[in-house]
Amino acid sequence: MNVETDPTPRELTEVSLTRFAAYFLWLGTVGFGGPIALAGHMQQDLVDERGWVSKEDYVEGLALAQLAPGPLAAQLAIYLGYVQAGVLGATAVGVAFVLPSFLMVLALSAAYVRFGGLAWMQGMFYGIGAAVIGIITRSAFKLTKLTLGKDKLLWGIFAVLAISTAWTSQEIIWLFLLAGVVALLVKSFPIRLPARSTVAFFFTVGAAGAGGSLLGLFFYFAKAGMFVFGSGLAVVPFLYGGVVQGHHWLTDRQFVDAVAVAMITPGPVVITVAFIGYLVAGLAGATAAALGIFLPVYLVVVLLAPSYKRWAKNPQLNAFVRGVTAAATGAIAGAVVVLARRSVHDVPTIVIAIVTFAVLFRWKVPEPLLIACAAIAGLLLRPA
Predict the structure, then answer these.
(1) Any alpha helices (H) in the chain, and if so which ranges?
(2) Are the CB atoms for 102 and 291 separated by under 8 Å?
(3) What is the pTM of this model?
(4) Are 303 and 162 in contact (CB under 8 A)?
(5) Among 25-34, 96-105, 199-208, 209-218, which is the least confidently predicted range?
(6) Which residues contact 275 (CB under 8 A, 6 or more apart)?
(7) Is 227 within 8 Å of 300 (Cβ atoms)?
(8) How much is the average pLDDT of 241-254?
(9) Maximum Cα–Cα distance for the chain, whole Å?
(10) What's the number of CA atoms in the CB half-sphere (13 Å) around residue 321?
(11) Omega of the bond leading into 9 within 30 degrees of 0 (cis)
C-alpha cells in the first residue's frame, strides 16, 4: 500500500487514550472493505484529518504490519496504540478494534446454530456462499497485482502454491517456509542465517498441537495466524485443510458459511475464526479461537515495536517475507478453486459468483451490500 506524501507535515494534536481507543471501537464497528481499506481509513482519519498520528509513525507501523505475520489492519492499529501509550495503548486499541466484530460474529453464530436448519437460512447462505467466491476471487486478483509485480520468481512461487492448494485442499506449511527460503537465497545470497532462524521459529510455532480441547483450538488458530501475510484471507486455505479435512470440526458447507460471516461483519477478516470456534465449542470455543488468532499478533507488535527499526530494512528478512507473501497469495488463489467446488455447483450460484466478481471489478460497491443482495437472490433462486 502506498502512502501519499505531504510536503507540509501538520502539527500533532494531543489526544487522550480514551478518545484514541474510541476511534478504533468505531472503526471496528463500521469498517468494511478488508485490510487495505481499513489501513486507508486510519491514514485519512488519524493522520490527515485529526493529526493524532504523525505520518512517520503511520508509515513505520504499516511497514511493521507488512513485514510481520498476522492480520495487517489489526497489527497497524495495535502499533499505533503502542506509539500513543505504550503497552496499555496497544492493549486498549487492540481490544477496541476487535471487540465489535467479535460480538457481531457471536450473534450471527448463535443465530446460525439456532436457525441453520431452516429453509430461509439455508437459502440465504446458498446465495451468500456463491457471492463469497466472487469476493475472494476479486481479492486474490488485487493481491496478485499488489504483491507480485513483474518478479518472475514471485510469480513462480505463486503458481506452485496456487496449484498445490487447489489440488490437495491442504495447508502445506512447509511450502510457505520453502518459498521464503528460496526468495531469500535467490535475492540475498549468500547470507543465510536469517532464513534458518526464521524457519526454526515458524516450525516451533507450527509444532503446537491442535486437539479438540479449548487449548487445542487456541494453539491451532495461533499457528494459522502466524501465516497470515498480505491479507486476512490468507488464513482461509490454512483453515480449510485443518478445520474441515484434518479435525473435521466443520463440514464444507459450514466452512464456506464461516467465510461468509467474516464478509458481512466489519473489522478484521480473520474474525471468521470466532464463528468456527463457536460451532466447535460454543462461546468458550469462539473466545479461544479469537485469542489464538489475535494474541500472537499483539505480542509480535509489543515485543518488536521498540527495536524493529533496526531490522525493518534488513534485505534478508524482506526477501523471506516477500517469498512467503507470494506463497500466501497463491494459496488464496488456490482456495478460490477449493471453495468454489463446494459453493458454485449450479446455474444460479455460477451467476451470483460471476455477477459479484464483475460488480467489484467495475465499481466500488460495499461488500456487505453485495452479500445482502446475494442473500435475497439465494432465497429466490435456491432449488426446492
Answers:
(1) 17-30, 35-42, 55-67, 72-115, 119-148, 152-168, 173-188, 193-206, 214-225, 235-239, 252-263, 272-304, 308-311, 315-343, 347-362, 367-381
(2) no
(3) 0.74
(4) no
(5) 199-208
(6) 105, 108, 109, 112, 257, 258, 261, 262, 286
(7) no
(8) 87
(9) 63
(10) 21
(11) no
